[in-house]
């Protein structure tokens, strides 16, 4: 039963002509599936509706080919042929009593038009945002009228698709309605430029157009960025206050946040739950219309506090709804401890960034709802009374054990160390990564409820132990360790002077408490988050740190998780030295010889220690030993041995959780044939599917 303290979260909210059944609002979020994978997209949104979200939104939806976002795969409503894909989503969302919302946008100079080959348009002549070697041309008054017409027609198409809420988008530095507000993008001297009133004119007109077009049956929402954190170069909160006052009663709902996306979906390493409050709390005082905002809210107490303190009317969520699509239902049913809390790692964002289906560290079913028929809450019951031995209790082992336990298998987990969680437990102790422990904590919480799962700490298993145990199924999730020899993407062989050098440390050494001192070079051939975390840790310990990479860019993959700018800012603020495009040739005594990767010139550096972050080696010795003793398996009662997660091939925590989940899903299930998951075909067959002629 629901805790009465949370009742307020379940009161309905009117949004113009429609009513949300509760205060949980899945705000628009990208997913890498969009218009290209409409069945997968609809199934993903449906699970959110089933999980209790009163409003389920699309991602950005392009309204015209001149606002084409290729290579990013978003929603699309260029013409009537795009309606069925969104109608499918609406039907699925409505089936669970939720409202469907559509975020219309034309991204002007922040579009690409790589597919449509149209000329980019913007308030004024300006470079395109993402470094494409082309510019946007200044819109004429005719263009502005056309843009308004496209937006209006897209709103009507959205209504025909079944949408209940139509968004006007003026956030994230991504839409013309926002670009006209920004002085740096709008240098016009006509009635659309100059004074604030002029710069707001287009936004006001588009809001009025949308209300006029669909306002009789659809709520009109405005997604608005109150602060760009760019100083006078961007929209500042002082100006945003005036804009909100000018438009206060025009939309039926205000959806407010900070820009750009890297500030809005800020990783947990750089901001806590509810971090946007100081930037958005004025809005509710300025309008009588409901206000929704985000803050990676996972705690119902925080949510209630936001409403009671008059900050928000509705709890907006993208990431918390990805990590746990059933978050509202769990609060409603009084199952707070079952909430799978987002860890703020932004692997979900990397789907959009790499134009691939969204995935989530915490929720391995995200993006698999349609193509694998995976549901975040349901799983097929076990096929047999056979037992499973899970070796290793990192994210892969814990997730395998949890999901196998949910299926009803008798599971035993053996963990060598005296704590659960593997790499998650270790990395969560590093600066800024504490929330990552939620990967472990949620799984332990679930496992503790299952009488059929036994967990044994301090149990380093050998091949003989596994044979003696005699479970029919054995899954090895024994993890990996960091290489010490410098081999990696850039260094194709061991670096001279690294092996057996007590001055060379790995991240494992640091996590074991063995820290270097003095002048330390962090060699990063990994390219993601860890080197910056290690640099920060060592700086805090008083070391003089240089972050070195053979790459041309520091932490390039962190662009995909929106960490990049925050990492660069922090490293710069801490005064940590950086050096790119240099490989290590040799390390002897305290002399490090570096080579410029382009002109091969050499420099020498004095340093007391090197932390090498290049590549990892699977801990697969147990697997290899068991394979060698394959002839003994049947006598021991073993039917199959599998190696998963980092022990198979080191990767992200998300990969390990996924591997554990997939193992559990597929155990003893019949093979599905050649194609392991459903795929989207851009053929007549898909058109038939969308028309509901077959399934
Ligand atoms: P993954 O990310 O694949 O889950 P981790 O490195 O996080 O991998 O976790 C692996 C876990 O396996 C660690 O907690 C480690 O202590 C444990 N482990 C490794 N070898 C053995 C073994 N032979 N017996 C039991 N546990 C083991
Ligand atoms: Fe949260 Fe990470 Fe999942 Fe994104 S991938 S929803 S940030 S846990």
Automatic annotation (TrEMBL):
One MF term in the entry's GO annotations: metal ion binding
Residues annotated as domain FAD/NAD(P)-binding: 387-626
Record's keyword terms, sorted: Flavoprotein, FMN, Iron, Iron-sulfur, Metal-binding, Oxidoreductase
Cofactor: [4Fe-4S] cluster; FMN
InterPro entries: Aldolase_TIM, FAD/NAD-bd_sf, FAD/NAD-binding_dom, NADH:flavin_oxidoreductase, OxRdtase_FMN_N, TMADH/DMDH_FMN-bd
Residue ranges of domain NADH:flavin oxidoreductase/NADH oxidase N-terminal in the record: 9-336
Coiled-coil stretches: none
Domain of life: Bacteria
Sequence similarity: In the N-terminal section; belongs to the NADH:flavin oxidoreductase/NADH oxidase family.
Protein name: Dimethylamine/trimethylamine dehydrogenase
Organism: Dokdonella immobilis
Species lineage: Bacteria, Pseudomonadati, Pseudomonadota, Gammaproteobacteria, Lysobacterales
